[in-house]
């Protein structure tokens, strides 16, 4: 089959890189639908033998092809019957951060009927859109050697009517694709470095904030990083919000009250691709639980948080931001087993 054949990704006699994004894109959108007799060959030709995938809690670290298939690919196939992967964003570029290399990053949904248990969560028997943020390191031969994957199982709990967290922040909703509908393998990659420059500058200034107003310099206004009609799409438990005032009210104020000493930006990957950029840390943040948060009283515990951010920019401004956070792992550190709590609930 055609996706078993790989062309050189980084030509030896040329400084111009071919579109290395397409090979992993084909694999990731084929592996869940090919016949079992074809899957083994597809995996062998698409993943390095010693590939390591780090997946959000409760899956955690998977080492080698067999573990990746057994503990990630097969559970998704079995849990979401007739499943299809649906990309909203799929971009790639050279990584500015160590360990370097070329990476692709994606926001997608795994779509199917939730008919069997998945990663410990009881099924609903209904259609589900399991959102996921994903980063993959691509070797010169086109194979994937490393991955970081953040599944939003809390949003899946919400879809099942078993939400274990209070609904007190933004709008809980399906992640929309980019307003421009051009986020999958963008054609014009020329401004990727400039786009990433903008996002990096924003992140640098976002670290410092006024403890009374929760504002940071340079974020808004005529010379600010964010467009006045910015859209921020947060994970389950936080939800989405509109404009900077909505972002502060529906996320930033409560988060900084609970974790005022948070330090972020510890990223293993930062890439730009045309009007898009993506960054991730595993973990990205270290912080102390100093205030109540989403029903959990302040514990004083030191915490870490795995983070993925995806951005669409235009005219020198950030227009949209998709955010995936490993909140199952965060709440585990705060002493909460959200999977058990969700399973114990009667569906709404």
Shape: globular
Q: Which structural category do the helix and sheet elements fall into?
A: alpha+beta
Rounded mean pLDDT is 93
Strand content: 25-35%
The SSE string, one letter per element, is HHEEHEEEEHHEEHEEEEHH
Give the count of helical stretches: 8
How are the strands ordered across the major sheet? 2-1-6-5-4-3
What does the main sheet amount to?
6 strands, mixed
Descriptive report:
This protein is of the alpha+beta class. The chain folds into 2 domains: 2-159, Nuclear Transport Factor 2, Chain: A (Roll), CATH 3.10.450.50; 192-344, Nuclear Transport Factor 2, Chain: A. 25% of the residues lie in helices and 32% in strands. The protein has helices at residues 22-30, 36-46, 65-79, 153-159, 192-206, 243-258, 327-333, 338-344; strands spanning 47-55, 60-63, 80-94, 102-114, 127-138, 144-151, 226-233, 240-242, 269-273, 276-288, 302-314, 317-325. Strands 2-1-6-5-4-3 form a 6-stranded mixed beta sheet. A 6-stranded mixed beta sheet has the order 8-7-12-11-10-9. Strand 7 and strand 8 form a beta hairpin. The chain is globular and about 60 Å long. The protein starts with 21 loop residues before the first helix and ends with a helix. The model is unreliable at 1-17 (pLDDT under 50).
How is this fold's topology laid out?
Layout (H helix, E strand, L loop, with lengths): L21 H9 L5 H11 E9 L4 E4 L1 H15 E15 L7 E13 L12 E12 L5 E8 L1 H7 L32 H15 L19 E8 L6 E3 H16 L10 E5 L2 E13 L13 E13 L2 E9 L1 H7 L4 H7 L4
Parallel strand pairs: 1-6, 7-12
Antiparallel strand pairs: 1-2, 3-4, 4-5, 5-6, 7-8, 9-10, 10-11, 11-12
InterPro entries: Cyclase_SnoaL-like (IPR009959), NTF2-like_dom_sf (IPR032710)
Organism: Roseibium hamelinense
Pfam family, one: SnoaL
